[in-house]
Design a protein that fits this description.
The structure is a homodimer. Chain A is of the alpha/beta class. Chain A is about 55% helix and about 10% strand. In chain A, the strands form two sheets. Chain A has a four-stranded parallel sheet with strand order 2-1-3-4, with helices on both faces. In chain A, strands 6-5-7-8 form a four-stranded parallel sheet, with helices on both faces. The longest helix of chain A is centred in the middle third of the chain and has 24 residues, at about 200-225. Chain A is globular, with a radius of gyration of 21 Å. The N and C termini of chain A lie far apart (about 45 Å). At the A-B interface, α9, α10 and α18 of A face α9, α10 and α18 of B.
Chain lengths: ~425, ~425
Amino acid sequence: MSQEYRKMWEDLNLDLDAHDALLGVLGKVYGDIYMAQKERPGGMDYFNFVMTEIHGLRIKELLEEKKQGRKIIGSYCVFVPEELVLAAGATLIGLCSGADFATEAVEQMLPRNTCALIKSSFGFKLGKACPYLEAADMVVGENTCDGKKKAYESLKTLVNNLYVMDLPQMKTPQGRELLKSEFLRFREALETFTGKPITPANLKQGILTVNAKRRALHRLSSLRRANPAPISGLDALLANQVFFYDNPARFTKSVNALCDELEERIREKKGVASEKTPRILVSGCPMAVPNWKLPWIVETSGAVIVGEESCVGERGTRELTEESGNSLEELMEALVDRYFRIDCAIFTPNQDREDHIREMAKAYKADGIIHYGLQFCQPYTVEAIPLEKVFEKEDLPFLRVETDYSMEDVGQLKTRIEAFVEQLR
Amino acid sequence: MSQEYRKMWEDLNLDLDAHDALLGVLGKVYGDIYMAQKERPGGMDYFNFVMTEIHGLRIKELLEEKKQGRKIIGSYCVFVPEELVLAAGATLIGLCSGADFATEAVEQMLPRNTCALIKSSFGFKLGKACPYLEAADMVVGENTCDGKKKAYESLKTLVNNLYVMDLPQMKTPQGRELLKSEFLRFREALETFTGKPITPANLKQGILTVNAKRRALHRLSSLRRANPAPISGLDALLANQVFFYDNPARFTKSVNALCDELEERIREKKGVASEKTPRILVSGCPMAVPNWKLPWIVETSGAVIVGEESCVGERGTRELTEESGNSLEELMEALVDRYFRIDCAIFTPNQDREDHIREMAKAYKADGIIHYGLQFCQPYTVEAIPLEKVFEKEDLPFLRVETDYSMEDVGQLKTRIEAFVEQLR
């Protein structure tokens, strides 16, 4: 890395040694998992570049935006409406939570029995290793699961400007009212913080920008219906991960360019695996960069992943925000409608998610479903059990995996997943 | 047990063998823990009787109420307003969740990493061992923690008439609105179910009845300020547990009779332990019958418990419902106000709980605090860590315990608790 970045990281008060070590591991893991893949589309070069520059060029861009008076807003969840952030002339970025870091310090603040994702978000703060978090002018938490809801009380003591958004637990009219009042409160908070009023025009532009990102991913998803699969699950996951970090317009363009290439591949019947390769739908908890453990195991076990029913995947992006409104009120209602449809396991009941899994399995011609549960993530691990029963009854093989970010269980997982894939042939 | 009870249990479709075994263990544990105590107040005889008849006489009473057309409503949480249930001419009872039961069957329905309390509630259903649950005409669940919220989705497939009440996560005006709309919905559901309209008169009577139970426990609590402690923590906990099962008027009378005796003891400076015994405040998760593990360890380790900051304790009973209203609307607002003050760890932030612990420690002259966290109970185990830091800063010794219903860790816990008590001398 150039000296310029070192100076930048130093100014962000990162722990340079720990951060160097992190980037070293990240580079190696990326090489071993991503660069080792065969038949990768050329369009993935862009994402390779993004990954090598994940703490470099992108941070530099954000700091330049800050210099020009633009605020950087960090978030940990797909319930934070990027449309509003863009409308307020600010930039939304997903914050680091995909790797174990500073675990000993984390366990002084959180119970050991906390999911890896939450622990990771604390670890990157305590270990001073997330330049996104350090560059953020405001961090937005949300009352999704108990773990996050209660952990934000402690994160508040570590992070300067933590804003917590409340969320409903049921999709009742009262639940929608709560979400609406929280979105209105967030709109006000953004306006106050950025000093820029949110108008129908800039909100509409925000909606168009975010919808364009989503549409590009929809296009990518729909191409994965093809057999042979034109892109690996690992690469598609990466695009879904970069969705949270990248400049929206550039991201949209890059995904669309990738899709042009995939369409070509499909015409040529070219794929990343043979037509007979078992096709897997992965469903469950989000996978933040660099959490590639499960898809890596799956795709080195003779299967190909054809869809992600996940916040980092279709759960996060499948719904568009209605663009037709003209008044601020209409556009806000459209936002509330859109986010209220997210079928996160924090909702009870959550029939929509079961329906969506079924729909995805059919659309992507999945031969089996692997449910990815982070250990101690109660909403998803509890929901997984009835889902397993339902899909087994429908003769859709379903494998329930519970894991964390460590590499200790890789051998055991590989054995289970290989056996599962074998049964799909 | 008499043949009459066996017939009753059989009619309730209990698994008689499993239930016999349960009662056998319960009787033995009660003997070993409760009857082995010294200097017990005579007033505890009533509670001994209640315990020997817990699945006998009380169930018989409930079945007789049912015969007379009264509905039995079961609940798992202090957020279910007994006042409304009584007003609708029904009886509210707490459901079994204090012991491991049918664990293997439970773990087919819930993740292993689920707290013992939730697993227990499933175990008693799957193992057909809770006559309260089988006698209940309606079971009320509530969206408190993730574990319960998501588990009710599966419990619905086991229990005939499960009604789920939504709850807020923040004490905002929107949160209060949600609670109010849920209480109004519950009132309607009760009226429809019982066929008895809730009127200002019967709601006021319900409030008076439940407040009387609470006032009796307030009296009991205030007597525990005395040194030497006039009653053990185990016995006081038992009274708090029986609060959830017993006939309200009889319970109130029995607690008051016990208090008369304790006042006498205090005048005579008679106690269950010497004046120099370290005094402990227990704070945290609820302890349902027969979960006496922690207080038993504490009180056989040279300390006496002087207060319970718990749902089965002051968190559940300290607030009265305002009785002065005359219209249905006023009384409903009073109910919402009362329940909205409960400082359960599901709320964020939850400063009230910290304040209440401090207040209790001072009022009951506690020398130290033991925080009781059920393993995998995220709201309480996360909250315990900042609480520990706060109270240690205030020189109030604080021991954080995380455990379950098994006996495996008793030796280890006893060692830790003995060392903690030693340090308080």
